[in-house]
Amino acid sequence: MGSSSTPKIYRGTSIPIPDAQLSSLIDAHPKPSSVTSYSYGTAGFRLPHTLLPCVFVRMGIFTALRSASLGGEEVGVMITASHNPENDNGMKLADSNGGMLDADWEKHAVSLANAPSSKQALILIKTLQKYAVGKHGGSDGKLPKMVVHVGRDTRSHSPALAQLTMNAALAMGATVIDHGEVSTPMLHHFVMHANGHLLPSIIPQRCNESGYYEIMALSYAALLRTGGLDGAGGKRLANTKELVIDGACGIGALKIDIFRQIFDKLAVEGCRGLPSLRTVNFPGEGPLNENCGAEYVQKQQLPPNLYSHESKLMGMSKGYMTSFDGDADRVVFHYQDRCGKFHLLDGDKIAVLVSSFIQEELRCIDPAGSAVKCGVVQTAYANGSSTLYLKNVVKTNVVVAKTGVKFVHAAAHHHFDVGVYFEANGHGTVLFGPKFYNFISEAEEKLRGTPRNHRGNIALRRLRLLPALVNQSVGDAMSDMLLVDAILYLRGWSLNTWADLYSDMPSRQAKVKVADRTVIQTNDNETAAVAPEALQKALQSAMDAMAAEENRSSGPKPRCFVRPSGTEDAVRVYAEANTQSGADSLASEAMALIYKLCGGVGSPPEPIISNRL
After folding, report:
1. 82 an active-site residue?
2. Model confidence over 11-36: pLDDT tens digits?
3. Of the residues 69, 82, 118, 219, which is catalytic?
4. Deepest of 16, 54, 326, 467, by most Cβ within 10 A of its Cβ?
């Protein structure tokens, strides 16, 4: 059974070790000859673990200097490869606001990781050090305070890699806070709450693991309690009384166990509506992320393999399930109906549910919907049916951003006062901006003195709880799971009711190997190709032909887009249509066009044959 732990704190002096010793530290872990270049993707550095010691040492130094550059604001390092196989590992860097590393400093991180020698690495280190001292250092030229939080997932090689990072940060004179095994969202939460001056006052400051559980569980329980205020909500259906969590044989399984203990205490104290939590696929029960977890379930559209011992599975219902990924920053829901058919509710479905709930509550206070700008950020991979539902039924704003969590996160901040984003893979959150907090303050004044069960008052209570329940730094599987469950409870819905809001268009994803992926260029949100020039015209012709063939007067139209892979010389294809055979046909035509116009290699791609209708 999981338990929360007290972090270990190693105090720093803000005085780096001598340059010769720092060079030796770097030289002890040289860049492998097999690595051409390290890249910082949408989720940090990620490779087979044996290729990473060089990066981890240098990033330990780097994060200390990043903290110094912010005048001692605390930053973080998470050692994980998320949904990747066990053999891989990686590193995600958290800035002082709890979010992802600033884009400008991302470039510095990549430069330092790829410095060919300790001599050149030291030049970069000295440049960053000089910047930090010039901006925040004392008159004696000493670096300001530096604090680095470190967390890791359950991979067998994570402790050693974490130790390299901590040793390097300590060598720079930083204070290091070692949180041990935690989820990625927890590490980001710790960093966000450690910098209390950046935290909105509506969110209680809780800097450690027990505080993370406390703030989330109590906010969730308080949200459930609002269901009894107007007599119209708060119904736990029989098929949602037990919530089964597939932990992907990763860290999430351990941490959910702690929520179960808190729920037991809340139930004793009289909290109604709590589901029974049952966790399967713990670390060690099966291979991490293999045929289980959010990535597998969402991509394959299949239920997870259950590795847990039969004693843990006895009497288990599959009518209300979630799957996390390996570091618990993604979640998808799924269930099997009475006929045994599998149904997936992915990030698109979560975005629809959450955005409709928030807008409904806001309109109970502001019927015109003019005080706060709400919207949903999607990527080109979002199913067309979800986009149509958001625009026509929820009547919310929709913005399409470039694929990758750092792009959708930034777009949610930029475009909306309440920005909802969930990628189809289940990674997402809700971001609340300054206008939202002002709206809450004004609503409190406006509703003062009204009855407790006034619908506007109920909406205000619910909206006030959301920034504490919903992780404001990154997507969080545990936080998002509790939010979705609370909404289903308040609406008295089953997963079947939720799933029936709209039907996904059939889709197909594929890829084509090419000699040089840089030949393919797209517009900013990757919905259209801009080079080669002939490619988009040919794709549009294929889409028009499919639309004519389907001959539908309403509903989403067939569409297709292509984008260069971020990790290999290949082009990724996404196609959707009103039938699976139509989606497969459109994807096949796109693959043939890429092969012909973009320098395809090997044998021409075979047409995709539909294996489902």
Report:
1. yes
2. 999 999 999 999 999 999 999 999 99
3. 82
4. 326
